[in-house]
Write a structure and sequence with these properties.
Four copies of one chain form a homotetramer. The first copy, chain A, is α/β, with parallel strands linked by helices. Helix content of chain A is 30%, strand content 20%. Chain A has two domains: 6-129, 3-Layer(aba) Sandwich (Rossmann fold); 154-321, 2-Layer Sandwich (Dihydrodipicolinate Reductase, domain 2), CATH 3.30.360.10.
């Protein structure tokens, strides 16, 4: 297809965002996979850990120190938090463009980051420079970015669902509620009892009610859209499915704006967005309707509330947490950064059933 | 054990609330199962349709017309809506006490019932007399009731979670939000495509956003507790598990009441309730922690909201929709009606894992 | 992309094999989707029934009678059994090439077909002509076929797992055992109680022990490979997952052949097959390692059996029942029939997790 | 109820068999729970780790060294393998009767045990004395036993399904096949990646094909029944459900015995067994039909095999791995040992749906 291929490295390829990046990049016509690193698994063929990649990925995991990442055009970090920030500087200096799927560069307020992530930040100056990789907000800045902070999964679903309302100033920005439900892959490929099949299956619960790290990230994005601080209650829940996030968003309409056409507002906002689909009125989008695809589907509702009428708007926003909520969005960002058609290698039709 | 047994009939025993009633009643020491009716399956041994009951229930389904229900002491209706209302009169006149698990006697406002259930009500006078079977509210009236309207599953979870707040008048009753998630058995044993395993598994969605029949039932109960109309947004969701409801409830605390001790309020309200468990502060109850048991577990949270502080209270309320949300609560009501210890045959330890 | 596109019609597009065909064909570079028929849903946009296809398929279901199927180059039947056989003749006469995903043309013995499918066959002469669409056996005949009988899901997994043994004559062909497990989508998008989520989830059972329609189909294929009648016990099971078949196959090695290298035998047999992957010794392939991909993975084992040694060979064979077991194999057949590279539009990387 | 209660200790109460023992024993009328030990969690209330037990179990985990186990009447070991064997001697000497749910006392051949469990056995003399706790075989010896080796989950399902055939000598004991499928709780409450929800859900695979520790245990039991060595292929599989084992068993009928009435044979063998249910001819028992209950259901089939007839018998055997396959059977053994009615506290009706 194209003459020159982008030389791509992946740091930390053994988790779910790693294998999902590989699923997408393995068939990307403009990408050459140069290195997939894992200190722990160095030497093991990637397809041995992930048999689903047999025949698609022939690389072995390599030691980060010997992987030649600085010769790559782009490096994805699919690492735990607080890893990318230490390695970013030297790669950037070597001319590599970074897309970080962890949280290291998402929060502009370093003090807030350090409080939530309980670590000293290693590259505050790169935080200042980094672009928050939500293309629906920052497409132009992403084009030239050296460091892209790929958004979290919840933040993607919640922000895309609330942005039009806040940008237009039609709701009470001081009292937003995001009731979000995530599939278990959102917890990562972590050996924790509560994510075992026998624990998480046939079960449902809230978690992180006292404070979830995605809360400041969402508030930062919403505040930018609203032009001022927002009040947000964010309650995440674990639901027994592998992939998918369903955010149910509640906002109180300003009394002056009860006559607004919210369906139209959303349709207009996302008309030119290839990966946001505003559903017809009355829709209740399934998470599976975006399974394995880089897509956010949104429906806008105004439910009955009392005999006297309604002032609450309900927005339903669904994504695949591993695609539009992680690896897919990361590739979307890479496509933008390298001047490729934005949808390259992201044409997956959702897998149903 | 006891000398005299209660002669019990079940009308409509082929659905999930029916088989769950049988699971509980089959080992109830004071119950004699006299008849289980099903027009369609008359003659088939119950244990042939439900092999789980082999060795526990020896009855066959019988034709309602020939079942001798009027000789029973108590009859449970586990029928679709609009069935019990037609058969109730003659049974009541024969001295039988009724527990209706359908919605026929739940709404006091006949016009509202007829609008939501799209039928003419056949026994408005019994609606007036019927007692809403939420023991935590109506225990005394249940004792003497001839007709008990057993609450819906969502209404049980939502009301138990909000009642203390409304009774105490501490929150804005005009803006309540109930974001509720139900396992698929809540839809009944119905042959509908959307409840097939291949549709409902690994998937999550809202439904009934435009209006769910449990909405007026919840509003009726909350209004009684609040002493006036309430505003309620109720968004139910389908989650891929068999049993369980998780209600996440949002209420805005009155400015004057921000200093209240909500944990204490809930503990005091339910101190003597055998089937409501107020969890320790910080808890996030799993639905499986009540699986197969007649129990509602509740946790009270006051999450961060903005830098300026918080006025939203979040209550998590979980039940097994088929037990405390249906058959278990029905047996609890029967126990109360017949002067038995309220917990008789309801001592199930939740099944975990 | 290519100059001329294949004009494709799909008869019966409302089931799981239908939507899966659409998932694959929607992005096939050489296909023009001309018609998707459904008598019952005529007029409804396909993407309204299957929101996952929004943005990918713009057609509406059309009435079969008015769909202009005879102007298509290829027509897929994704219909219940006994439909294709009635419509095939006129389409074939109009020069259309047929790929039937139902069972109408799979059994060469008309009497046997009529016994298992309880109907009179409408096109016995086309049965004689039809080619059984297992490319690993009949690739050359498929090229020129006017009617391809696309294999069943179980028959694909079982035959691919046993063929090398029977072709080489190394096992007792009179005593083969196929213990097969299928995800629930294999039952189709059928409104039956036993396939409801609340029935099929967290549950496992055998079914069809007395006789499953895939039994004669498998025996026919194995007999051809073995050069004579085979004895086969085939026990299918329902397992609580959406997609996937896992066949565990048992064969007794001929005493003279205990020294054979079975791993090598399988590797040699499938060396040039793009969609059969013989796994390394010791592997236990997951069904998810082929999820949403057109692939059969096979592992060969020789387990301990007694202190005295072993003569049983165990073959594990996994496919996605909707892809290599249905729609994917159908597209593979179409590619062969129309002289396209066999893997066109079938390059999906399995979706894991 | 009864005057004297059995004082019971549980060693290792933090796994699935531990919490299941507690679910059963918490409401056992003749049991006083005296201690539940866990070195790691000493001091933590049991109901804090397992909220399902709130209100039922008030004990905290205690340090094994300070738990006063030697004052108990009975002690259950719900520990990993190779723990019970070290602590058994002193408890037995103190007059405590032991029920070991681990594998330490199951294999009579010490050398074989050491080979499979890769450890030196600490109490060979107690192995000699220990009674294998399958009541359907060893009820009388269990009554007086000081040490009961509670059978493994697979061995329970497989042995109960094959014993009648081997005792009667009607099948080729040299070529038995057990194709078994287990829910994920069978792997224990272990932090391993492959048992995570996102790995094990919507997936199916075989495992342990090269050799599973239950293989020698099953062979030992079958050999005793058959009166000589047996040949057995045992292939376990992991299926995405929480509880349940489904064993599909294949045996070749001796030519002389093709006329035997196998249904009758099984019914006669288990006529007086309270926890084995031989299903009517043609049944395919669901695992959920025994969910949360101490029960094995068995169905006997003789499927078609070839045009020439059949000599393979297929037996389907289902249990709940945590109940009849572990904790329930352990309580059944305790009841027998202490002269209680065998079904005490084991009257659970299976939980369906």
């Amino acid at each position: 297809m194209s003459a020159k291929r982008i030389k791509v490295g992946i740091v930390g390829g053994t988790g779910y965002t790693g294998v999902e990046l590989l699923r997408i990049l393995a068939v990307h016509p403009n990408v050459e996979l140069a290195a997939i690193t894992s200190r722990k698994e160095a030497g093991m063929p990637v397809a041995e850990m992930f048999p689903s990649l047999r025949g698609h990925v022939s690389l072995a995991f390599s030691d980060p120190a010997k992987s030649g990442l600085e010769q790559c055009d782009a490096v994805f970090f699919a690492t735990p938090n607080a890893v990318a920030m230490s390695q970013a500087r030297s790669l950037v200096d070597a001319g590599v463009r970074l897309i970080d799927l962890s949280a290291d560069f998402r929060l502009k307020d370093i003090a807030e980051w350090e409080q939530w992530y309980k670590a000293k930040h290693a590259s505050p100056e790169l935080v200042a420079e980094a672009v928050y990789g939500l293309p629906e907000v920052n497409r132009e800045q992403i084009r030239g970015a050296r460091v892209v902070a790929n958004p979290g999964c919840y933040p993607t679903a919640v922000q895309l669902g609330l942005l039009p309302l806040l940008e237009a100033g039609l709701v009470d920005r001081g009292h937003l509620i995001a009731d979000a439900k995530s599939g278990v892959s959102g917890a990562g490929r972590k050996e924790e009892v509560k994510f075992l099949f026998a624990e998480a299956s046939d079960n449902f619960s809230a978690y992180g009610v006292a404070g979830h790290r995605h809360w400041p990230e969402i508030r930062q994005g919403l505040a930018l859209a609203a032009g001022g601080e927002v009040g947000l209650v964010f309650i995440p829940h674990l639901t027994p499915m592998i992939r998918g996030i369903h955010a149910t968003l509640y906002a109180r309409i300003n009394s002056a704006d009860k006559g607004a056409d919210f369906q139209k507002l959303f349709e207009a906002r996302y008309r030119n967005e290839p990966f946001v689909d505003v559903m017809p009125p009355g829709s209740t989008p399934d998470t599976r309707s975006v399974r394995a695809a880089n897509l956010c589907r949104i429906a806008v509702h105004r439910p009955r509330e009392s005999s006297a009428g309604s002032d609450t708007l309900v927005v339903l926003s669904v994504i695949d947490n591993l695609v539009k909520g992680a690896a897919g969005q990361a590739v979307q960002n890479m496509n933008i950064m390298f001047g490729l058609p934005e949808a390259t290698a992201l044409g997956h039709v959702p897998v149903v059933p």
